Amino acid sequence: MPTSLDRTLAALADPHRRRIVEVLRDRPCRAGEIAQAVGLTPAALSRHLRTLKASALVEESHPEFDARVRIYTLRPAPMSELKTWLDEIEKLWATKLLAFKDHVERQA
Length: 108
Prior knowledge:
With 108 residues, the protein is mainly α. The chain has a domain at 4-75: Winged helix-like DNA-binding domain superfamily/Winged helix DNA-binding domain (Arc Repressor Mutant, subunit A, Orthogonal Bundle). The protein contains 5 helices and 3 strands; from the N terminus they run ααβααββα. The protein has a 3-stranded antiparallel β-sheet. The chain is elongated. 17% of the residues are buried.
């Protein structure tokens, strides 16, 4: 069973979905605004938004004045989890590279 980190990475593997995340980084947007900014057809955008919602990266809301309008917003938790994982990997490699550097310097 995929973890939430696996779903986040899988969703971000597509360049169109990364671009959607970049657009939503600045502010919540309507689907039409996202489609125009990313250059996707409504059908293609819908497929990508469905994947982003399934991975919990994006949430959809409807304003009180018109239930037909959909506003998309980034959810911070999946990106925070990804950042934590990347920080842990960075620490691991920094430790390993420092040990390698020490080894090479002792050999010289």
